[in-house]
Amino acid sequence: METQAPPINEIVGLLGKFAPRKLTALRLGYPELGPLLQEGVIAGEPGPLTLSLARACVDSLGTASLLCDKGLDGAKKRLTSARTLRFIAGAASALGSGSVLGSIKSGPVGATVAGGVVALVGSIATLGIEFYEKIYSSNKANLLQIYSDLVDCRSDVAESKAEIEAMIANAKDSDAKKLDAAIRSANQTCRKIRSLCSAVGVTAI
Question: Is 72 contained in some domain?
């Protein structure tokens, strides 16, 4: 009885967005997979589960792992920017506080204006913090959550890659259903990676 090939559409979509050259190489290396390596195709025509599909998945997961690293770097940079802005906002807020401005107002008009500018800088910096710390992704996750999710995804990718590689090495003894499940799991992980990397501004590798 023929089985439906497991979907790898999210894997293909991930490569299509961030590593198009890798996707092209995959198509050239696995021409027998045909429609499965076209963007937007959820599953191929009914047919036996092939080792080619599993190998293509493993090849793609190497790139997915690199994307996780790239996403983590992006999240770190944005967190650093947010911390810098928080420091500026805190300093500006302190300088523009009532006690400080009260002493300044007794001085020249220029000093009063300067105090107002400092307070304005504090307000602008605060807005900057909100921009960097709360990236509006589909699930409204903040930077720390995105970072944590990318760490989990990188771990999941490594686990899936090792699992599928082991099944390929022992193809005769491997359970087709387990291999199918492993590929489906890797496919869903790549969906998460695509969303998370987009949220932190990754464009390509």
Answer: no
